[in-house]
């Protein structure tokens, strides 16, 4: 029987070498159909939640979009265009998580975001491939941390409503169960509280039940029936991979300009 070190060496030698990153990567139609046919994912897309592309376009705010659910305001008179699911890969080419470094075949292979305006919860669905492992066939904890932080940034931007921007001041993660690759994962994020310039956020990463009856709810059931907001949205049968908390600090546009 090979030793642990020999097993790891054999696994590393068997891995395929990824092709050169391209900002134009798009998941295959077969992969999109596979993930979006999962009952929970289908429910998120088909309900009244705001579906945000993983690499959305950024546009100038129009005067008639102030109360429109089709745009999410950003500082500086900009907004995320969520009118359609069309993406702008070039805009995100320098992003670690959403650019060619991590977004591609056998890495982060698919991602989509959905925001519920009633409960103010953001759900990110992601597929992690085989080439983002730490231990053999286990998604690297550092990648999970990067995805948590990146998703917190989206949640923070949505909560800010264009009034301010901010930066991550603190990120804490507790890993609860191994996330075996390939893995389709739901990240559930929400704002816990806001105290002055401090914005406290929480999140969970969970497996996605494939059965139609997920025991999850988006209909406002009492949260006391569930152990957490993540369990409420994804289902009692889901596996908790990790929990995260973050502290973001509000930063004005003027402060950002001074740092340049």
Automatic annotation (TrEMBL):
Residues 137-207 form the Thioesterase domain. Pfam families: 4HBT (PF03061). InterPro entries: HotDog_dom_sf, PTE-AB_protein, Thioestr_dom. This is Thioesterase domain-containing protein. It comes from Chytriomyces confervae.
